[in-house]
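ligand=tryptophanyl-5'AMP
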Amino acid sequence: MKRVFSGVQPSGMIHLGNYSAMQNFVKLQEDSNNDCFYCIVDLHSVTVPQDPKVLYENSLELAALYIAIGLDPKKVTLFLQSQVPAHTELAWLLQCNSYMGELNRMTQFKDKSQKMTSVTTGLYTYPILMAADILAYDTNYVPVGDDQKQHLELTRDIALRFNNKFGNTFTVPEGIYPKVGARIMSLDDPTTKMSKSNPNEFSKIGLLETDAKIKKSIMRATTDSDSEIRLDWENKPGVSNLLTLYSVFGNISIKELEEKYKGQGYGNLKKDLVQVIINYIKPIKERYNELRGSDELKEILKEGAMRANEISSDVVKRVKDKMGFVQF
Ligand code: TYM
């Protein structure tokens, strides 16, 4: 069996960029050799201020979305990070085996903290908690988007260093990135990634978005002045982003799209892309609406946490043994 682990923050809108990475969650569940753990990483969300009521709602919303996109709780373990104490316990043990120099190099921390007036220590040590999430399950594969590459490299470094120092303890994980769509860009500025924190509401499209908003966002998406439709991230990032979205949600290769839209302007491409996205997310929205209020969700999360606890508490025991803690 191969262990798969990934997590998504319950920070409100889950957008098409997130979904691009989450598509791999579903693909990996279909291989019966994989034992998949998908986590709602609520402890990561509180590294920036959260309204408690909103965090609560967003966490259950994400649980419903996990299932709505096709994750089957009978095949995978779905759970809340805050329900499994091994994550924070292991994070502490790993913090004492990693270095400020490593955290100072994290580009996501640098970008995020630069825009803030006060920065929590939790935001600074965020990547160590992420390493703990992954290492607590003897994880082989971590499906994520491109923006998590540096965090995953740090996780591997920490695991290798610990293994060298204390003897073989951790499985060293590998990232799995989408072949197309590993980095979906903002619709208003295709040189920056699509992000929940972009204040321009038309820069991103949520998985639960209305048809009208999808249409507006795509139709006003930034393109360039000529009208040639081809993938060229350097000179035509806007069109390249639209082609990528079309490929991910229309299940068609970029080559085929370039062929299909040869000699046509951006208008047709955008109009068709609107329909492709609307059609793709329609059944997700329907399933989400059925699930959202149901008591079943909390049951699923409770059972998931029990299974997650069983696996991860054993790993933490192993780590504490190696480090010399007295355990009974
Ligand atoms: P988060 O919640 O920001 O994003 C969830 C997933 O979406 C991917 N993603 C994107 N993929 C393509 N294009 C984009 N524009 C885009 N924006 C986001 C992310 O790469 C991610 O896969 N630190 C993580 C959460 C986390 C985690 C973990 C992930 C905590 N512990 C352990 C894996 C394993 C994060 O903030 O993801």
